[in-house]
Specification:
By secondary structure, this protein is mainly alpha-helical. The protein contains three helices and two strands; from the N terminus they run βαβαα. The protein starts with 8 loop residues before the first strand and ends in a 10-residue tail after the last helix. The mean pLDDT is 77.
């Protein structure tokens, strides 16, 4: 891949972050944070309450700084392409590693 794949903590909020000072404040309180997200928290909470497994796959489209809006718009297509490649790879590996006939799926 021409990108980095990381696994770790993503924090969620209700606003688009484009302020360097806010990013530094968040990093000061949560030093191991890998990214900020606006969409996944509600889904994660619902899955937790319903005891449904949840996994979040994100592609970072901006640096949450003063140029965030501009970099988001410039990087959106590449971010979508990157996460699509990863998802296809994960699904291929998943399909390869399970016996689909055992769960009644005929693929």
């Amino acid at each position: 891949y021409a990108f980095n794949v990381l696994s770790g903590l993503i924090c969620s909020g209700d606003s688009f972050v484009s302020d360097n000072e806010l990013v530094c404040t968040i990093q000061g309180k949560i030093p191991n944070i890998l990214g900020l997200d606006m969409e996944s928290c509600a889904i994660a909470q619902a899955c937790h309450q319903l005891r449904v497994p949840f996994c979040c796959l994100r592609s970072i489209s901006d640096a949450a700084n003063a140029q965030a809006k501009q970099s988001y718009e410039e990087c959106l297509v590449v971010a979508v392409e990157n996460v699509t490649l990863i998802l296809l790879r994960l699904l291929t590996e998943y399909r390869r590693n399970i016996d689909l006939t055992a769960v009644g799926v005929g693929l």
